[in-house]
Write a structure and sequence with these properties.
- The chain has helices at residues 20-25, 32-41, 54-57, 61-71, 85-98, 109-113, 115-120, 133-144, 234-246, 263-276, 293-302, 316-321, 328-341, 358-371, 388-396, 403-409, 426-441, 444-453, 457-471; strands at residues 2-7, 48-53, 75-79, 103-107, 126-128, 159-162, 168-170, 207-209, 212-213, 230-231, 251-254, 281-286, 304-312, 344-351, 375-380.
- Helix 11 links the parallel strand 12 (281-286) and strand 13.
- It is globular and about 65 Å long.
- It has 19 helices and 15 strands.
- Helix 2 packs across helix 8.
- With 474 residues, it is α/β, with parallel strands linked by helices.
- The strands form 3 sheets. A 7-stranded mixed sheet has the order 2-1-3-4-5-6-7, sandwiched between helices. It has a 6-stranded parallel sheet with strand order 8-11-12-13-14-15. The protein has a two-stranded antiparallel sheet with strand order 9-10.
- It has 2 domains: 2-170, Cobalamin-binding domain (Rossmann fold, 3-Layer(aba) Sandwich), CATH 3.40.50; 198-382 and 419-471, tm_1862 like domain (pyruvate-formate lyase- activating enzyme, Alpha-Beta Horseshoe).
- The structure holds cobalamin.
Length: 474
C-alpha cells in the first residue's frame, strides 16, 4: 500500500498573530507531527511511504499533479493547521480529480478542533483527531485488509470518517499517548534534512526535537492549556541526540512548549548530556517561573545557549487576565540569571489584549528595555480557534459571531484573522507591532550582535533580506 504525506506549497496565507512578511521569510522547518506519524505507520507491514515537502522540493501544483498521476497513492495524509488548510484543500481537490480512488486523510490541530466541519469538506475521507501515531497506523491497517464484518473503521479510536451515504461519524478520542519512549523516532530519513534552515541557529545543520507533550499551565490563549504533560526519559532523548551526533549534527532546537516543567528530569537530562561528552549546542523554551540559578547552571554547562520566554506583557493585570501565572518580578529575575550564566534570551511579547491601553504597551516596552533580550518577537493578541480565550470573548458577546467555526465550515481565502482590542483598530495594531520590531532590530546593540553572531555570508544575506522585507514600506 502506497502512502504519501504531503506538505503543500504556500499559495494562500491566513495571516495570524505574527507579522506576515517576517513569517513568510523566516525559516522553513520540518513538520515533526508528520515525521512522527510516518515513523509509526511504516511499522505496519506492506507499507510504502513517502513525504513530499513542496516548499523544500520547489514543487508547484503542476509538479505535484504529475507526481500524483504517476504514483496513484492509496492514501494521502496532510498535517492541517487552521492557517494552512486552504493549501491542503487545494492539493486534496487535485488528488480527487486525477486519482479518485485515493483516500485523503487530514490530521493535526485543525481537524482536532473542528472535526465535523473538516469531514464535511468534499475532498476529505478521514480525519485523525489528536495524536496520530496509533490511530493513523490502525486506519492504514484497516484500509489494507478491511475485515468483512466491518465496512467502516468504527472501532478505531481518534478518527472520523464518512459513510457511503455521506453521514459523518466521529469515533471516541484516542487520548494522549502515555509512554512517549515507546514511539519510534521521527522519520527524518524521509526528508531532505539539510535543506531546512533556522535563522537563529549557530551551525549550518540543526535538528528539531520534541521531548515532551502537553502542558499543565492555564494560559487562556493557548491550545494546549491544561493538557496532560508527558515526557520522554532523559536517556531516550540522549539516544536520539547520540544518533544525530553520529550523523554529523551538533545543534538542536528543542521544540517543547516548556522544556523545564519537570525540574528533576531537566537536571537529569543536563547531567547525562554533560557526562556523555557530546558537546552539543541546543536551545529551548521555558516559562520564567520554571527556572532558577542552579537549573540554569546545568543548562548552560550542557550546551543550552538560548531560551525563548513568553514574557507577553510588562503589566501585571494583563498577565493575570491571560491567567499566565507569572509575575513581572519573576521575568526580571530570570533574565538577570540567564545573563549571569551567559545564556541568550528571546522574548515573546503580545500587544492588543482587549483592555490594553497605549500606556500599557509603553510599560511592556519599558520592561523590554530593562531586561534587554537579544531577540524579540511581538505578536498581536489573537483569539485563536476554540481556545478558552476565544470561547470566553464569544460567551461575553465581545466576539459577535463564531467566525473561526464559520471559516472551518467553508474555508475562504479572503478570511482575515480578527484581533480583539477595545482601543486600537487591527490596522493600528499591525503598525505598532511593526514599529516595535523595527525599533528593536534597528538598535545598534542588536545590529552589532546580529553581525558578530552570523555564521557566514549566506546567513548574513538572509538576515539582511528579512530585515529589508519587514521594514520596507511600513
Ligand atoms: C513547532 C511549532 C511550529 C513550527 C513548526 C510547525 C510545523 N510545521 O510543524 C513553526 C515555528 C514553523 C510554526 C509555525 C506556525 N504555527 Co505553530 N506550533 C508549533 C508547536 C509549538 C509544536 C508543533 C509540534 O511540532 N508538535 C509536536 C508534534 C509531534 O505534534 P503535532 O504537530 O501536534 O502532531 C501530532 C498530531 O497533531 C497529529 N498529526 C499532525 N499532523 C498529522 C498528519 C496526519 C496525516 C495525521 C494522521 C496526524 C497528524 O499526529 C502528530 C503526532 O502525534 C505547536 C504547539 C503545540 N504544542 O502543538 C504550534 C501550533 C501548531 N502552531 C500554531 C500556529 C498558529 C502557527 C503559525 C500560524 C504561527 C504564526 N506564524 O503566527 C505558523 C503557521 C505555519 C504554517 N503556515 O503552517 C498553532 C495552530 C493552531 C491552529 N488552530 O491551527 C499551534 C497549536 C500553537 C498555538 N496554540 O498557537 N509552528
Amino acid at each position: 500500500m502506497k502512502i504519501l504525506l504531503i506538505i503543500p506549497p504556500n499559495i494562500h496565507y491566513i495571516e495570524p498573530y505574527s507579522y506576515i512578511k517576517a513569517d513568510k521569510n523566516n525559516a522553513i522547518r520540518p513538520c515533526l507531527g508528520l515525521l512522527y506519524v510516518a515513523a509509526a505507520v511504516r511499522k505496519v507491514s506492506g507499507i510504502e511511504i513517502r513525504i513530499i515537502d513542496c516548499n523544500i522540493d520547489n514543487l508547484d501544483l503542476a509538479g505535484l499533479r504529475q507526481i500524483i498521476k504517476n504514483e496513484q497513492p492509496d492514501i494521502v495524509g496532510f498535517s492541517v493547521l487552521t492557517f494552512n488548510i486552504l493549501n491542503c484543500i487545494e492539493v486534496a481537490r487535485i488528488i480527487r480529480q486525477i486519482s479518485p480512488l485515493t483516500k485523503i486523510c487530514f490530521g493535526g490541530w485543525h481537524p482536532t478542533l473542528y472535526p465535523q466541519e473538516t469531514l464535511k469538506l468534499d475532498c476529505v475521507d478521514y480525519i485523525v483527531i489528536g495524536e496520530g501515531e496509533h490511530s493513523f497506523s490502525e486506519l492504514v491497517g484497516h484500509c489494507m485488509n478491511k475485515p468483512q464484518t466491518e465496512q467502516y473503521p468504527v472501532n478505531i479510536k481518534g478518527i472520523g470518517f464518512k459513510t457511503s451515504l455521506g453521514e459523518i461519524k466521529i469515533n471516541p478520542p484516542s487520548g494522549p499517548i502515555k509512554h512517549l519512549d515507546d514511539l519510534p523516532l521521527p522519520a527524518y530519513d524521509l526528508i531532505k534534512t539539510g535543506k531546512y534552515s533556522n535563522l537563529l541557529a549557530r551551525s549550518e545543520k540543526v535538528i528539531n526535537l520534541i521531548t515532551s507533550r502537553g502542558c499543565p499551565q492555564r494560559c487562556i490563549f493557548c491550545d494546549i492549556r491544561g493538557t496532560l504533560y508527558r515526557f520522554r526519559s532523559p536517556k531516550n532523548v540522549l539516544e536520539e541526540i547520540k544518533y544525530w551526533v553520529n550523523n554529523g549534527i551538533r545543534e538542536f532546537f528543542i521544540l517543547d512548549d516548556n522544556f523545564t516543567i519537570n525540574r528533576k528530569r531537566t537536571i537529569e537530562f543536563c547531567k547525562l548530556l554533560i557526562e556523555s561528552g557530546l558537546r552539543v549546542k541546543y536551545k529551548i523554551s521555558s516559562r520564567v517561573d520554571y527556572l532558577d540559578d542552579e537549573l540554569l547552571k546545568y543548562l548552560k554547562k550542557s550546551g543550552c545557549y538560548l531560551i525563548y520566554f513568553g514574557v507577553e506583557s510588562g503589566v501585571q493585570k494583563i498577565l493575570d487576565y491571560f491567567e499566565k501565572g507569572t509575575t513581572i518580578a519573576q521575568i526580571k529575575n530570570v533574565f538577570k540569571l540567564c545573563k549571569k550564566r551567559g545564556i541568550d534570551r528571546f522574548a515573546y511579547i503580545m500587544i492588543g489584549a482587549p483592555e490594553e491601553t497605549y500606556k500599557d504597551i509603553e510599560m511592556t516596552l519599558g520592561l523590554i528595555k530593562e531586561i534587554k533580550p537579544q531577540h524579540l518577537h511581538c505578536s498581536v493578541c489573537t483569539p485563536m480557534p476554540k481556545t478558552y480565550f476565544y470561547q470566553k470573548l464569544l460567551a461575553q458577546g465581545s466576539i459577535k459571531h463564531d467566525y473561526w467555526r464559520e471559516f472551518a465550515d467553508s474555508p475562504n481565502p479572503n478570511f482575515k484573522t480578527p484581533f480583539c482590542s477595545r482601543f486600537f483598530s487591527d490596522k493600528e495594531l499591525r503598525s505598532i507591532q511593526n514599529a516595535i520590531e523595527r525599533d528593536f532590530y534597528l538598535n545598534p546593540r542588536i545590529i552589532f550582535q546580529e553581525i558578530i553572531k552570523t555564521r557566514g555570508v549566506k546567513q548574513l544575506v538572509t538576515k539582511a533580506r528579512l530585515a529589508f522585507n519587514v521594514f520596507s514600506n511600513n
